[in-house]
């Protein structure tokens, strides 16, 4: 994230560019083309082209034997099949089974209204059964992991989206969601016909506000004309916002009625309703966490999904399990950001191919430090 040399090159390139970034070709929602209307919306020059070595990978070579691991996977609300956050975690354990020889993974899913005691019981039961390591998917598990981990010092725990637990047997798996969401905001502004876009968050928590913050900043970075609708399904503490497609549909439809024609959601399983609303109202949508263009549970809406902000929970989970199998956690990133491809954007369907140079240019600037992305929304 430092990259002084890259930052200097980036600033020089920006100064050398003049005028507004414009796409050419037909303005067609179905194809995802930027079109002339995007050019009328975009007021910032294109960023410099991304250097070939702008990113690195978390990949680690060498055969690792995970056959002795007995993995417990405690899902957040929605569980396997949510086409989003939980499915990404499941993909990581599936990869561990295929590549590391992990024999089995015991899964359990939280309900939207369950008590803290129920979460603790889930983790206690996994530990009592000899599962090791145990992965808690979501910040909602933080109090439970804090309570349970000290009772089982020989069990390795990981928690996704929380780094507040300071126990020696707990590994945080956290991400720079705001960085990937910045690129989603850039894509939305370029693809909007009306220069009017929307955001739908599931639950108004600091974590989801990171998605919101990056999206707003990215859109505003490329257009000073952009209008943005910005809504949440439920307040903090009410986690039903991650599992209410009907409410997601209503909220997205309301944003579209106000003029937004590209909607980005960070709402878990509620995103299905956002996609349905976009398709029904001739709008476009941006997915989250997984490459939702390829998710079977939202396949009926894939033609309106132009990209997804990919949060590589799968990579983080797989790398954690690999590190545990090696008995060496020192190589795990402290934060999975753009620099280690821990977040990014999807290209499935080819709907952002025409602006890939723009997205990669901004990605390189974020990696170098030339662009700093805030994790707090600036309205």
TrEMBL record:
Q: Which domain of life is it from?
A: Bacteria
In this protein, which residues make up the domain named ABC transporter substrate-binding protein PnrA-like?
74-361
CDD domains (UniProt xref): PBP1_PrnA-like
Q: What is this protein called?
A: Basic membrane protein A
List the SUPFAM superfamilies hit by this protein, alphabetically.
Periplasmic binding protein-like I
Q: Which InterPro entries match?
A: BMP_lipoprotein, Peripla_BP_I, PnrA-like
Which species?
Amycolatopsis jiangsuensis
Q: Where is this region: Disordered?
A: 24-65
Q: Which family does it belong to?
A: Belongs to the BMP lipoprotein family.
